[in-house]
Amino acid sequence: MLELCAVNYSSKKQCLIENICLSFASGKLYGLLGPNGSGKTTLLKVLAGLWPMTSGQIFWHGEELLKKERKEISRILSYVAQSNAPSFDFTVWQIVSMASYCHPGDFLKNKCEEQIEWALRTVDAWHLRNKKITQLSSGERQRVYIARALATGSPILLLDEPTNSLDIRHQLEIWELLKTLKNKLIIASTHDLRAAQHYCDDLVLIKEGQCVGVGVPQTIFEGSLINEVFSLKAKPF
Amino acid sequence: MNNSSLNNTVSPIFFYWILAISLFLSSVVTLVSGDMPWTAVWHGALDRMQGISTQWNPLLDERLPRLIVILCTGASLAVSGAVMQALFNNPLASPSVLGISCGGSLFVLILFVLEWHHDYPYAVPFAAFSGCLFVLLLIYFLSRKNGHVQLTNLILTGIAISTLLLAIQGAITYALRDHWQLIQTLTEWEAGSTADRSWRHVHMQLPLTLVGLLGCWLYRREIDILTLGEEEAKNLGVDVSRVRWRLFLCVSILTGGAIATVGIIAFFGLILPHLLRKLQGPSHLYLIPLCILGGSAVLTLMDVLLRFFAIHSFSLGNLSAILGGIFFIFLLMRTPASGESSSSSIPSR
Amino acid sequence: MRKLKWKNLFPYIAATLFIACWWVLAFSHTDSVTPVTALRTPQNPETKNLGITPLHRDTLRKALAGNFTLMAKLIADWDVDAQLLEKQTETVFKRLPNAAYVNSQLLVRQLSTQSLPPKTIVRFLPQTYVAASFLLALTTPDQIVALPEGLRKQVHLFPKEQTNTILLDIDRYQGEKLFIAHPDIAFVSHYSHPATLEALRNQGIEIHSLPSISQLSDIYDTLKQIGVVSNRQAEAELLAIFIEAALLCIDNRLTTLNLNDHLPHILFLNCHHRYSTPTEKTLTGQLLNRMGLTGTMQRSSSSQEWTIPIEQEELIQLNPHCIIISTQNIEGKIREISTFRHTKAYQQQNIFFVDENVQDFGSQHIVLAYYDLYNALASARFP
Predict the structure, then answer these.
(1) Domains and CATH numbers, chain A
(2) Which of A122, A161, B183, C268 is most buried as measured by Cβ atoms within 10 A of its Cβ?
């Protein structure tokens, strides 16, 4: 169980995340929805410990998550950014194998290569393993970073719009994959409302840095909340 | 790890061999060539080693320490350049970006102006190292905001400090322009030279080089991950602030040691690691040893060539700066206008 | 707030200890260096035995500063000395041509009786050290508007009592003050700042460009030019004769040392950040050539270099009997004597220091430069 208690994040100019209290259960796929600038990415980065929250607490199985050592945090959760333009010509294999850094030495000896191969095959990137990351399309890079997140074996996955650069086939494959990872807690922000409705177990609505609604997709989409959050005049579908 | 996935185009073994052979030949020439005939030198060295004689021997007292200093300097500058390029996520960065070299240079300049180097000859390496470290600390604390250091702040602060230090250096030089002997001394020192290096210089530089290189080597995995950016590195479990600080310290030690014993040698911190990365790939598991080998080999070769052609008008620093400048322009011309991220950042010396 | 853990501090402590221990072990023993005596006053027995006048540096300096009576006296003394030496040793010694000697005596009489036409008051602005040096000798301080700032600091050549009467410094930021002082003539060189030259022209100041000093004849030409322009031809001519006479006198003193009998190897070194030897392009190199000592070690250069760097290995290979080091900081360089401890010069205590400011000055003080070289050799002990 991942719990957020009164989490706030402010930059100099404004409060980007305000008093968010949420609970996430393991084994579920959560969709994080909200208009542009609502704070979805901010929330994910604060959750991942990449940006320091101004106040609040985050618990994982009752223990404060972000007070652990960085390696331990990385063993618990993995974050996949929305976009990442690499500067150096690492190969796909090298990029994915960086997932083993947070694990102790025996992991390297015993499970590392198997884990990497499984992760690459899962996202259909095995054939790209010897290519340079800078030579891939943005969609292919996205799949590689998802593979790296899978390769860490962390029980929590935080995905920031994981399918925004992918073609329709790979979008569906990724959503199907996320759905099958029953042993993980997955929080994925997305603008694809249909996919969120179809694949996510629960949805979290964020508007102007505040959580305005949590519930199963049916409840969320049947109500008027979705219209209010996205300032829609009619139902989205 | 799957080694077959690590190579880019040409086998790295080929480059290792080329550099190793070059290093070996240059080292042999450095030790063997000189003004005294080799047979006399060798016999003198043997006598010294057997305790028969205590006479000064060029091989043991000048050529060998000079070779060690050159090897240390080449390795130090190449590795510190590679690490800086990784830390700044910019394949064309170097220690000079943060003004570390300027700091060391300024402290040594002040030392010369005060003429303390006459009374305290070991003050030069101390000043160089202290200057590098002082600037590093200054930049670090100036760029901290809310207890964290952002890379953008760091780079901007480094450029500002570097500009300020160069301005101070220029002001001092201008104020003392009448002291032509001092200006000549400074010119010779700034040009970079490996002449008359003794075991004193080896003892000053070698422990710094060993510590610096060991530190960079121990953090090779972290350096790889840091090339992806701070957030990605944190995400993958790297304690970014601690690792970065320690790597900055290593770079400062390596750069300070090189400035202290040889002077200012451009090119190595910028172009050499960049070229080696193109040949070998960005993994620091292989890049760091290659930089050690390549830096040592290239600097030794340059020194041998300068001595062979008896070019007194050029110093080692002049030659490396000119070659580096030409290579830099060549690289810029070859880089595509957009798309390839390796050249998207503004390159800096 | 992160707590400092022992394991976080360990790398720093370990690295610091490693480096500190290495340095302590490496530098804990220091070479005990016996400083070699610096320049000694010459006590050449031959000089006394030969009955020639003693040659003192300070006397030369006073004469070169513009004491024309002293110049004439010394010229006369040296001429007699040369005749005495020739008589006693049956060797040809150098003397001024008779015409020059007579002219020198005539000039000093004219100057002392003020039988020359009165001088019009002209004010000068020397932009170079050489021009300032000559003007201080030829003219009175009230005729000099300003001096280069660095020249004032050479108090061993230009006493403060003399330079303090000239209040202004040659400084681009004092352009208006210099203009108010109404200089009539400015002496510049080819390396003078172009903007300064243009400003001087715009202010209506007459500009005379002096040649660069690369050999002895350039010194005489410059002196003559300044003499003509400043309407001090007599003084300039006398000074030129004195310079020549002094150099000849020192030549004769060097001959009396009979150094070519010993064939000592003499090495002259410049030192800035590293040691180098001057080539014949420098005045010092030409003075060394003038000495005519077969043992003088001059490394030839086919290029246009002024100095050739020398490394310790080559220096030890040359193994000179005598080393003369030109430096500005004699005290500091004495501490570095151990560099030469494997040479005969060190073992025989034949390492001498000469003032670099004098060696490279290029004015009438070339006499002092030559004297310093002679003084070193006269003090040396050769086997």
Answers:
(1) 2-230 (3.40.50.300)
(2) C268
Closest CA to B26 of B296, B339, B289, B335: B296
Residue B349: inside a domain: no
Identify the three-state secondary structure at position A156.
strand
Does C touch A (3+ CB pairs < 8 Å)? no
Strands B144-145 and A210-215: unpaired
pLDDT at residue C224, as a whole number: 93
pLDDT band at C41 (very low <50, low <70, confident <90, very high): very low
CATH of residue C333's domain is 3.40.50.1980
Question: C142 and chain B: CB distance < 8 Å anywhere?
Answer: no
pLDDT confidence band for A29 (50 / 70 / 90): very high
Q: What pLDDT does B28 receive?
A: 93
- Same domain flag for C155 and C267: no
Q: Is residue C81 part of a domain?
A: no
DSSP state of C124: E
Render pLDDT for C213-252 as a digit per residue (tens, 0 to 9). Answer: 888 899 999 999 999 998 889 999 999 999 999 999 999 9
CA distances from A48 to A14, A78, A80 (A): 21, 7, 10
Nearest beta carbon to residue B203 from set C26, C274, C317: C26
Residue C37 has pLDDT above 50, yes or no: no
Inter-chain touch A87–B227, beta carbons under 8 Å: yes
Q: Nearest-CA neighbor of C335 among C35, C29, C28, C27?
A: C35
Chain C closest CA to B188's CA: distance in Å? 6
Interface of A with B in 203-232 (CB under 8 A): none
Instruction: Give residue-wise pLDDT tens across range A176-210.
Output: 888 888 888 999 998 888 888 889 999 999 888 88
For residues C148 and C225, state if they share a domain.
yes
- The 3-class SS string of B50-90 reads CCCCCCCCHHHHHHHHHHHHHHHHHHHHHHHHHHHHHHCCC
Indicate the number of domains in chain B: 1
C242 in a structural domain: no
pLDDT band at residue A235 under the 50/70/90 scheme = low
Say which residue the tokens 């030890």 belong to. Answer: C316
Q: What is the tally of structural domains in chain C?
A: 2
Give the pLDDT confidence score for residue A148 in this predicted structure: 93
**Final residue before a domain boundary, out of C231, C249, C267:** C231
For residue C120, count other CB atoms closer than 10 A to its CB.
7
For A82-133, how does the pLDDT look when each residue is reduced to its tens digit (9 = 90+)?
A: 877 777 889 999 999 999 898 877 655 667 788 889 899 988 899 999 999 9
* B348 inside domain: no
Q: Is the pLDDT of residue B338 over 70?
A: no
**Residue C311's domain spans which residues?**
259-379
Answer yes or no: is pLDDT of C301 > 70.
Answer: no
Same domain as C220, residue C151:
yes
Residues A34/A229, Cβ–Cβ less than 8 Å: yes
Q: Which residues of C touch B118 (CB under 8 A)?
A: 329, 331-333, 335-336
Instruction: Judge if C281 and C226 occupy the same domain.
Output: no
Domain holding B257, by residue range, is 6-343
What does A83-119 look like in DSSP terms, one character per residue? Answer: ----SS--BHHHHHHGGGGGS-HHHHHHTHHHHHHHH
| Domain assignment of residue B1, yes or no | no
What chains are in contact with A, requiring at least 3 Cβ pairs below 8 Å?
B
Q: Do both C220 and C277 map to the same domain? A: no
C250 in a domain, yes or no? no
Give the DSSP H or E segment for C342: none
CATH number for the domain harbouring residue B151: 1.10.3470.10
Residue C142 lies in a domain: yes
pLDDT at B339 > cutoff 60: no
Share of residues in chain B with pLDDT > 90 (%)? 23
C223 lies in the same domain as C313: no
Residues of chain B positioned with their CB less than 8 A from the CB of C275: 196
